[in-house]
Amino acid sequence: MTVVGTPDQPLRVAVIGSGPAAFYAVEHLFKQPALVADVDMFERLPTPHGLVRYGVAPDHPKIKTVTRAYDTIARHPRFRFFGSVGFGEHLTLADLSRHYHQVVFATGAQTDRRMGIPGEDLEGSHAATEFVAWYNGHPDYRAHQFDLSVERAAVVGVGNVAIDVARMLVRTPEELVKTDIAAHALEALRNSRIREVFLLGRRGPAQAAFTNPEVKEIGEMADADVIVRPDEVQLDPLSQAQVDAAQDRTLVRKVEILQGYALRKPEGKRRRLHVRFLVSPVELLGDERGRVAGMRLVRNRLVESGTGALSAEATGQFEELPVGLVFRSVGYRGVALPGIPFHERWGVIPNDKGRVLDAGSHQPVTGLYATGWIKRGPSGVIGTNKPDSVETVTSMLADLARGAHWLPAEPDPRAAEALVVARQPLAVTYADWRRLDALECSGGQACGRPRLKFVAVEEMMEALGRTEPSR
Ligand code: NAP
User: Fold this and answer.
1) How far is the CA of 36 from the centre of ligand 1 (A)?
2) With bands split at pLDDT 50, 70 and 90, how would you rate the model's confidence at 466?
3) Is the pTM here over 0.90, yes or no?
C-alpha cells in the first residue's frame, strides 16, 4: 500500500481562502521534514491575502508587509493558487473529496454582528465592515455609497476596527493620499463634510478592546483633535480593582493615555474625534425621509457579571446624539459554507483543535479542518493566526498518521487543475496575482501613491489579458 505524504503519493490538501490563517497553515505543512504535500489554495476573488488586503487600514502599511512572507510560501514548487474560484460556486465538497485527502477552511469572518436595536436598518446606518471593505477597494463593495455630506458620524464599539473607521473618517486628504486607499474612497473622503466623529464604548476605558498603538495614534492626527470627557475615563471602583489586580502595564498605560486626552485642550483642528465611554445606543432615530438623524443613548454603569468580568448595565439616564451616519463595529461574524457544519450563534465552524465536528454527533468529520476566524471567531491580530494554524495542521498530521483522511479517486494534481479550469476558465494563478501587484504598484508610482488598487474583477482580468482561458 502506498503511504500518503511520500514522493509516491504526496498528501493532497485543498485550502479554502487565502488570508493569513490560510498561508500559515500552508507554511506549517511545508515545514514538515518527512512530509511531501501538494497544496492547492482556492480563493473566490482573483487577489489573495484576505483581510491583509481588504481589512487592514490603508494608513497601516507596515502591517501589510507581512504579505512578503506569504509570497515566499507561495513560491514553494508544490503550491498552487487558484484565484476567482469559489467554494460552493465552482467547487463542491464532493469535488474536493475526489481530488484531495484533506481540506482546510480558512474563510474568515465575512460579515458583521448587528446591534439589534430599532432603527438599525435606516438609511445611513452601516456595518463598519462594509466601510472597511469599501475604502480598501474590495470588488464586492466598490459601489457602496456612504453619505459623507453630513457633519457628524458615530461608530459603535471601541475595538480596533471601530478606531480604524473613526481614523479614516477624520484623516485629511493629504494623509490619505499617501496610503493605498482605493481611489473611489480617496475621492469621496476628499469631499467629505464630516467634522465630528463619536466613538462609542458601552463599558469603560479599562475594558476598551482597542490596543495602545491605535489609542496613541489618534492623538497624533494632522487635523483632528481627540476629545475625551474626564468623567468618562475616571475608573469606577470595580474597574480600578480589576486594573490593580491584573498588574498589566499595557492596560494601565491605555487608561493613562485616555485620561491624558481628557486633560488636553483642543488645538482648534478642523475635525474632532470624540471617544465616549459607558454609553449604549438603544435606538437610531430617523428623519422624515427615513434617514438616520440621530441616536438615543443610555448611560451605563459597570456591574460584576457571574464570570467576574464587568458588564454594562443601563442606568435609565438617556441622551440624544444628533448624527447623520452610523457605523456599527461590534464584531465580525463568519458565514456558513454549503454542506459544512456551522454554529449559528457563534458564527464559526464547530471544531476541536481545527477538526470540523459534525453538527449532530459532535464527532470529527473525516477530511475537514478549519483555521483562523472561521475556526475561533474574530479575535486577535494577524500573528494570532500562526499558532492557530499550527494547531490545525497538527491535528491534520495526527489524522494522516492514523490513516483518517479521504481517499481521493483522482489524486493526480493535473486532474484537479483540469476540473478547476473547466469550471472557471478565468482562474488566476499566483504569478497572475504578482503581475497585478506589480501593475498596481507602478500605477501608484505614476501618481505619487504607494499603490493604485484594481477594484473591479473585470479590470483585473483585462489587465491580465484574461478574457480567454490561459492555463
Ligand atoms: P473587537 O476587538 O472584539 O471589538 C468589538 C467592540 O464592540 C468591543 O468594544 C465591544 O465591547 C463592542 N460591542 C460588542 N457588542 C456591542 C454592543 N451590542 N453594543 C455596543 N458595543 C458592543 O472586534 P473588532 O474591532 O471587530 O476587531 C476584530 C479583531 O481584529 C480584534 O482582535 C482586533 O484587535 C483585530 N484588529 C486588529 C487591528 C490592528 O492590529 N491594528 C485592526 C483591526 C482589527 P465589549 O468589550 O463591551 O463587548
Assistant:
1) 40
2) confident
3) yes
